[in-house]
Amino acid sequence: MSRPIKNNANFFTHFPHDRNSKTSRALRAKFGEGGYGIFQMILESLTGEDHFRMGTSELDFELLAFDFSITQEKFSEIYQYMIKLRILVENDGFFHCPELNKRLEPLLVDRKRKRDSNKDNQLDLPLISNIIPELTPDISPISEVIPELTPELNTQYSTVQYSTIQKKAKKKKKKKKKKKKNSLLMKKLKN
């Protein structure tokens, strides 16, 4: 059985110029370094969530405020300002960060590419979702879940022609094959 599809990430890229963007400077001007810190904690939280989005209910905000060690009122104030600055976007009871989605899209594309390439190496068995669709949740990448909110990426991806691990494995296999061939030759010579 294969591993379940992962729709979140363990980390996100943080660039050294992030703190000097217009939106980050506006957050720092209005709320001090604490406002920028809350923004970074929200990004960390979103990164760990499926499809990089979180709920907008009062309970969701209460839990985040508790996690960030601030009052719910202060969290709501900072959150509303981030919505105003378009750092965060709300949609259908969830919020997400378009910039974070843009940074994590290559990860999802790479995962999909690897899944697709692994399909060639697997048995052609029916998927459980094809048999009982109501048992499997929607596990589409963020660009398929919220296409209008995910900006197009104009990034060119390099393709690796071979992996060093695969190269080493091939070398080891050749060596083993050669050793076996030599041992067979030695047996023939002895007889």
How would you describe this protein?
The chain has 2 domains: 1-159, Arc Repressor Mutant, subunit A, CATH 1.10.10; 162-191. Helices cover 55% and strands 5% of the residues. It has 8 helices and 3 strands; from the N terminus they run ααβααββαααα. It has helices spanning 22-31, 33-48, 58-67, 72-84, 98-119, 128-131, 142-145, 164-190, and strands spanning 53-55, 89-91, 94-96. Strand 2 (89-91) and strand 3 form a beta hairpin. Helix 1 (22-31) packs across helix 2 (33-48). The longest helix has 27 residues, at 164-190. The protein is elongated. Mean pLDDT is 76; it is low at 123-129, 131-143 and 145-158.
The main sheet comes to:
3 strands, antiparallel
Overall strand count: 3
CATH class category name of the largest domain: Mainly Alpha
Question: What is the end-to-end distance?
Answer: 47 Å
Query: Could you tell me the mean pLDDT?
Result: 76
| Rg result | 25 Å
